[in-house]
Amino acid sequence: MEYKHCSRHHPLTLHKIQPGQQSQQSQLCHGCQLPCNNNNDSIFACYSCNFFLHDHCGNANRYVKHPSHPTHPLVLVPTPTYCSGTFLCNGCGASGNTFSYCCPLCEIDLHVNCTFLPLKVAHNSHPNDLFLSFTASVDRVKLPDYCRVCRKEMSFRNWFYFCEKAGCDQTLTNLLPLHTDWIRIVD
Q1: Ranges for the DC1 domain (predicted)?
Q2: What's the pLDDT score for residue 19?
Q3: What residues does each domain of the chain span?
């Protein structure tokens, strides 16, 4: 099956990754920068130009309404619109040079993965749910400056997970891929 994506001038071909298959599919997805080698994933690929997309990145919505920026919809762009060719993610604080969701009017930029972080997670060692905070409006005096799971230093300029229960100082960095063994998404 051929697929025309807004980021490419020529069609991509859909491939199903088989269990144990590692060859060229171990390339990074140009949408989210994660490896394209998960078993049973489908990817869109152009092997001649070394371009790969996870199925979910290739089919990502062009516009999203995000709770961190309810004023305007965020637009999916295949490359940063800045002269530098990079953007600084308002969610995690890291730079990026691939797909992002942005609001050009407000200069808001988010990695694709940060855009779809769950709003609520459960942590194995904590009895209460943790909620994603988009701002440091949470009382910082009570919160530690490090992630309670990985001990990584946290910047409260970026998004983070916290416990809403009074007197609790449980915090978790928003870098969920670091904590997949420790958390589960709560509906």
Answers
A1: 67-114
A2: 57
A3: 13-58, 61-115, 117-186
